[in-house]
Amino acid sequence: MVSMGLLLAGCSQQQLQGFLPAEPGTTNNTDKVTGLWVTSWIVLLAVGVITWGLTIWAVVVFRRRRGQTGLPVQLRYNMPIEIFYTVVPLILVLGFFAFTAKDQADIEQPYSAPDEVISVYGKQWAWDFNYVNQNVYTAGVQDQPGEPGAVDTDANSALVESQIPTLVLPVDKKITIELHSRDVIHSFWVIDFLYKKDMIPGKTNYMYVTPERIGTFAGKCAELCGEYHSDMLFNVKVVSQADYEAYTKDLADKGFTGQLGDDYNRNTNLPGTVSPLAETESETSK
After folding, report:
1. Strand, helix or coil at 40?
2. CB under 8 A, 24+ apart: contacts of 261-264
3. In 175-271, beta strands by DSSP E
4. Tens of pLDDT, residues 226-265
5. For residues 282 and 270, what is the distance between their CA atoms, to the nearest angstrom?
6. CATH 2.60.40.420 placement within the chain
7. Each residue of 105-164: pLDDT tens digit?
8. pLDDT at 70 over 70
9. How distant is the alpha carbon of residue 223 from its chain centre?
10. Fold exhibited by the domain 116-261
């Protein structure tokens, strides 16, 4: 224990966090994820050291000596050892499952009365952000190849850095994020929040988060969604409540009022969706 304490005391903050990108207290969930990650690695490292030690011990102790011939005494069964290597892994698996399920249940617990509701739409290859309580929105510019003034980020695409969508969130507020897709499966991932969730056409998923640190954090789509998937980036800017109110008011003053909803989805074959051709035929028959 003393050796382990001295070893951990010499670690940097990044090492103590298991090399995860987030700083402590970035959101109300990041410390849970970091704790689960680091604890799991410590347990697995201890299991690995014991396993390696026993393996090396067996190789050294039971190696064939010079002059030995024949086979050593063979044992068919060793009930205590068989019980040990069955029960111990089972306990480890059940322990990992229990702690993971507990933390996931906490992270996925809906807010009964969120301070803000954000509706996010993923689309090839950008993002629309609706600020539901304020009834304003921002529309992401979809990445296209060969646009004038663009900065190439790979061989075929052209991403305009100044046009990367930014989601602004107030610090220390309970936020419910509704996740939608306009076309194919995407995944909403704010790297420093240590959590991501898929966006599936025709289905609404939810994230519940309380940002606790002011700053700007990188986000991206974490699900391969087409040719320019690598350019489907966004930023999350966590600001004070006063700055958040000023930002949403500025959007309203600029005329970005209302909500960008399902009307802009590309899919026309989802359940309950009537194709434009069918609607035209219906009007003609009248």
Report:
1. helix
2. 261/119, 261/130, 262/180, 264/121, 264/123, 264/128, 264/182
3. 175-181, 186-190, 195-199, 205-209, 215-221, 233-239
4. 888 988 999 999 999 999 999 999 999 999 999 999 888 8
5. 19
6. 116-261
7. 999 999 999 999 999 999 988 999 999 999 999 998 866 555 444 444 444 455 677 778
8. yes
9. 11
10. Immunoglobulin-like (2.60.40)
**Please, are residues 227 and 55 in contact by the beta-carbon 8 Å criterion?**
no
b/e per residue 36-55 (b: at least 16 CB within 10 A): bebebeeeeeeeeeeeeeee
Instruction: Report how far apart, in Å, the C-alpha atoms of 143 and of each of 2, 6, 159 are.
Output: 55, 50, 6
Cβ atoms of residues 165 and 140 within 8 Å: yes
Pairwise CA distance, residues 96 & 89, whole Å: 11
Among the listed residues 179, 181, 195, the one whose alpha carbon sits nearest the alpha carbon of residue 226: 181
The 126-131 sheet, strands edge to edge: 136-139, 126-131, 116-123, 175-181, 205-209
Burial of 274 (0-12, 13-18, 19+ CB in 10 A): exposed
Classified as helix, coil or strand, 260 is coil
C-alpha–C-alpha distance, residues 101 and 18, integer Å: 20
